[in-house]
């Protein structure tokens, strides 16, 4: 019976969360110790293994669906991008594997980044599965630069009888509070492969003769439940993030942001969102700094003058070209795993503050918590992350957003997408 959904490079469960909501359990292949522990804590089936070493033939005749999100570090804008240099070798590996030839060892010796060839691993499994007519459908996801490779996969899959679609999707168009763009491949033996219909847009669309228009992109404030629209800003207990749980950063600086939210010193900008990523130069650190170890007994600043209420933004990392987004916008792409890739909340005076107007100093920048990052990636607020803060952040940054995955998977599973099943705020 072909009922198995196989999930290569499964990570902490970005694809598994929506599958669970649809009443389906996947079998994830994953090597990272802490991602496997997170999956175990979430009740997900996992084989801890090196995907490149595990035999593919054992899944033949059993597999209904096939999912793959190969590691993106070799290709990502956040890394050295040696995968682009190795791209001809990866294309060669895919062509050879599709023909039943395993030349990986030879090609690996020529690769600049040993992780590059992992993007060819899905073809090894697909070739083994195709010999018995598996799988019925395929869904794969990677960073945008991998799109040419997905097109090569698509040509091979079409020769095997699949309908295939490839392209770049923006996660924000599907209700993810993050403008994370990803190269997607969708294939099916039983239906026409096509991208899911977007549910959100940069600006809300009016109702028409064809039905309701798309909703406005989900902002960070809305996702986190921080004063979005007419809802009050929640008070966050000392030592915990939104919804409770341990504070990932042993610092009193978190209290500054908590107090600012609770006192209403953060205010959303009025009107429809106009997405405007601001790039700051090297002088940003000198102006702001990042205070992670503020004394726990230090008083949080108070802001009583209405003219000096601060607006919060999220800075995507501490590099010079970092994206800075206001909290009433979606976040930029969240990626972690390196000291330079640390997201911080920064406070700025509202745009209408008069020049020379006396104002207290802004609260210091505050590092995003793992709980906040997980919600912005659309994992459940109570997701049982395992490991220290660095290990958790790495899992979050490498995962596919579950809400995007739900949109990609639903048509293959003959399942209607219910937004209420994937609520963002705790």
UniProtKB/TrEMBL annotation:
The keyword Kinase is assigned to this record: no
Keyword annotations from UniProtKB, A to Z: Methyltransferase, Restriction system, S-adenosyl-L-methionine, Transferase
PROSITE patterns in the cross-refs: SAM_MT_C5
Signal peptide range in chain numbering: none
UniProt entry tagged with the keyword Nucleus: no
Leading EC class: transferase
A GO BP annotation: negative regulation of gene expression via chromosomal CpG island methylation
Active site positions, chain numbering: 72
GO molecular function: DNA (cytosine-5-)-methyltransferase activity; DNA binding
EC number of this enzyme: 2.1.1.37
Assigned protein family: Belongs to the class I-like SAM-binding methyltransferase superfamily. C5-methyltransferase family.
Official protein name in the record: DNA (cytosine-5-)-methyltransferase
Protein species of origin: Streptomyces kanasensis
């Amino acid at each position: 019976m072909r009922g198995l959904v196989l999930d290569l490079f499964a990570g902490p469960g970005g694809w598994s969360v929506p599958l669970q909501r649809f009443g389906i359990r996947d079998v994830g292949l994953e090597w990272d110790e802490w991602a496997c522990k997170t999956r175990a804590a979430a009740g997900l089936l996992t084989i801890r293994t090196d995907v490149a070493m595990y035999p593919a033939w054992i899944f033949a005749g059993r597999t209904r669906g096939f999912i793959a999100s190969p590691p993106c570090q070799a290709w990502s804008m956040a890394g050295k991008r040696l995968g682009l240099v190795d791209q001809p070798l990866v294309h060669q590996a895919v062509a050879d594997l599709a023909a039943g030839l395993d030349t990986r060892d030879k090609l690996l010796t020529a690769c600049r980044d040993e992780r590059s060839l992992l993007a060819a691993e899905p073809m090894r499994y697909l070739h083994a599965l195709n010999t018995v007519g598996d799988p019925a459908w395929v869904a794969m996801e990677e960073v945008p630069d991998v799109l040419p490779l997905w097109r090569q996969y698509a040509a091979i899959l079409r020769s095997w009888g699949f309908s295939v679609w490839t392209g770049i999707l923006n996660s924000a168009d599907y209700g993810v509070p993050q403008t994370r763009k990803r190269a997607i491949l969708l294939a099916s033996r039983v239906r026409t492969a096509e991208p899911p219909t977007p549910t959100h847009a940069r600006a809300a669309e009016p109702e028409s003769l064809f039905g309701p228009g798309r909703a406005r992109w989900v902002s960070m404030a809305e996702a986190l439940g921080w004063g979005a629209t007419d809802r009050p800003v929640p008070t966050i207990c000392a030592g915990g993030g939104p919804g409770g749980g341990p504070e990932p950063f042993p610092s009193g600086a978190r209290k500054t942001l908590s107090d600012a939210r609770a006192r209403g010193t953060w205010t959303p900008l009025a009107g429809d969102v106009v997405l405007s990523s601001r790039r700051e130069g090297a002088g940003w650190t000198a102006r702001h700094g990042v205070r992670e170890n503020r004394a726990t007994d230090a008083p949080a600043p108070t802001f009583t003058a209405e003219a000096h209420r601060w607006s919060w933004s999220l800075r995507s990392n501490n590099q010079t070209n970092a994206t800075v987004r206001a909290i009433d916008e979606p976040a930029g792409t969240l990626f972690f795993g390196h000291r330079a890739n640390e997201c911080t909340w920064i406070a700025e005076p509202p745009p209408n503050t008069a020049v020379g107007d006396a104002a207290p100093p802004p609260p210091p920048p505050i590092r995003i918590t793992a709980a906040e990052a997980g919600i912005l990636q659309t994992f459940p607020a109570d997701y049982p992350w395992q490991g220290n803060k660095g290990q958790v952040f790495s899992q979050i940054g490498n995962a596919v957003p579950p809400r995007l995955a739900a949109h990609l998977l639903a048509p293959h599973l003959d399942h209607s997408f219910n937004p209420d099943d994937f609520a963002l705020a705790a």
